[in-house]
Amino acid sequence: MATKHDKGRLIAPHFNEILSMRVEEVLVDTDLLGTFSGEIERVGTPLETAIKKARLGMERTGNPFGIASEGSVGPDPFMPIINANIETIVFIDDELGIEVQESIKSNEITAFTTTTLKNDLESFLQKADFPHHALIVKPHNGLGSFKGIRDLRELEKAITQARDQSADGEAIIESDLRAMCSPSRQRNISAAALKLAQRLSHTCPECELPGWGLKGYIRGVECSECGDFSIDAIKQELMGCVKCEYTVPGAVINLTLDPARCMSCNP
Ligand SMILES: [Zn+2]
Ligand SMILES: [Zn+2]
Fold it and tell me: Less CB within 10 Å around the terminal CB: N or C of the chain?
């Protein structure tokens, strides 16, 4: 597992318990592929970045198996007033020629930001769960940052220095979202790892490769009131293989369409 941020202990137990696999960390400077604090912009999707990370670890060790994860925190795509943490994790097996991924979205993420312009440090620290969650301090207008702060005296020192370095004399204080600094992110990474280990424990009924699971959705449902057919509405899960084309319809999500969502009954 390629990581720089102590993620192995969040992932290894699930792979060990469910798959009897031993996960070892490989120290790789994954920050080169993009950082949370924004110094290095991430190029590509989180899945592409996770795959690149895993492959860096595999190149380093010559091991045909690799794991890596990639996360993001930002406004929830469906409810932008709250934050969401999306964690993507991938397992690569070059012997079988498969890349298996899972991801989770969680609104349980402690991610806050403030500036010294607002006089709310005490309530901010409470909200940001300091010092349990670490903080970053940076100049409001300027370069440089103080990271991984978990101590009040250290925080005060960083604020003074950041204000000195800022063109307008103010500083930004925000949650440090790197995995080793954010217990709420750690829980989400662990949940994504559990989901991936579970997926890898299921094999394809056709080709017997691991990674059988949700592949997409079958769409098209009739309205329960007028009987009109909605082509876009999700009907049920589609289970599939990561390698071959074999699929099986999964759990039914909507047997009929709710008239409230029907274009004819509720245009
Ligand atoms: Zn298959
Ligand atoms: Zn209808």
Answer: C
Ligand 1 centroid from CA 243, angstroms: 5
Ligand nearest to the CA of 261: 2
DSSP per-residue codes, 190-238: HHHHHHHHHHHTSB-TTT--B--EEEEEEEEEEBTTT-PEEEEEEEEEE
Nearest to 116, CA basis, from 75, 158, 151: 158
Distance 224 CA to ligand 1 centre (A): 36
Domains of the chain, first to last: 2-107+179-200 (3.90.950.10), 113-175 (3.30.1490), 213-261 (no CATH)
Q: Which ligand is closest to the CA of 210, given by its number?
A: 1
Length of the chain, please?
267
Q: Using one digit for the tens of pLDDT, what is the confidence trace for 191-249?
A: 999 999 999 999 999 999 999 999 999 999 999 999 999 999 999 999 999 999 999 99
pLDDT, tens digit, 9 for 90 and up, residues 59-111: 999 999 999 999 999 999 899 999 999 999 999 999 999 999 999 999 999 99
How do residues 14-49 score in pLDDT, each as one tens digit? 999 999 999 999 988 777 777 666 666 777 888 999
Predicted TM-score (pTM) of the model is 0.89
